[in-house]
Give the backbone structure.
Amino acid sequence: MKTGQAVIAGGQRLLHKAATMGSENFIQPRHAQYNYAALFELAGCGVKAIQKDMVPPGESSAEILRAHAGVKQVPSAKIELFVKNHFLGPELCKELIRLIDLDRRPSTVADYNGDAAFRTSETCDLSADLPAVRELERLLLDFTGIDPKHGEPIQGQRYEIGQEFKQHTDWFNPDGADWDKFCGVAGQRTWTFMVYLNDVEAGGATRFKRIDKKIMPERGKIVGWNNRNPDGSGNVATLHHAMKVRKGVKYVITKWYREKPWGWAE
Ligand SMILES: O=C(O)CCC(=O)C(=O)O
């Protein structure tokens, strides 16, 4: 039974359960170039000390997120899911869209499940050297309270009409064949944060079917969720589907965090 698919920064994905190995398990070279030195500097400034003291470094928490004005927690006992409108201003959204358009490639699959239409978007790996990306990292640090060392490099995705990313999870299956490769260094994904960069004329919602919740894309809106159950196992209620865009184009930012500082098993 296929329950979902995790996505690795750089466009790699791991199918859960009955996954078959594909031939695209490679590391995007630009991962190595992500400017962590600059991000580590961020960790020393800008974030409220109380946030850093409250939780382990790879973690956010309901308390940290709720401390920001305008944050709404989706009422559900099954998932910790938060939404805030106007997280990013229009100018930063516009600049990030420009950057995504400069360097897009088809979103790829590491572990092909036989469905060539499983993820049909395009992806851009955004360099932390870019001022817009640094500003985004700063805002994410302030919002999430998560040490940037635990973050995977930021990605942008672009969906045209008809493009989607079928139902998947962002967490990895500890029993999966590729656990060591994808999680051996940095561990499990902890939190996902996603920012919509534009309004979409029709379609393009992010649907959490297990909790009957659809989040509509709106420029600057951030969505974040904890990928795990309280015991640390992957939470199936985080299954989500980037639904087909029906009219217009959709741009999003995706940011995943790990239990341990980001690193990659070669
Ligand atoms: O674009 C969306 O709405 C969701 C994106 C997503 O699920 C992902 O990239 O993992």
Remarks:
- The helical segments are 29-33, 36-43, 49-54, 62-66, 90-102, 131-144, 179-183.
- The chain has seven helices and 16 strands.
- The pocket of 2-oxoglutaric acid is lined by residues 7, 157, 165, 170, 194, 206, 240, 242, 252, 254 (CB under 6 Å).
- The longest helix spans residues 131-144.
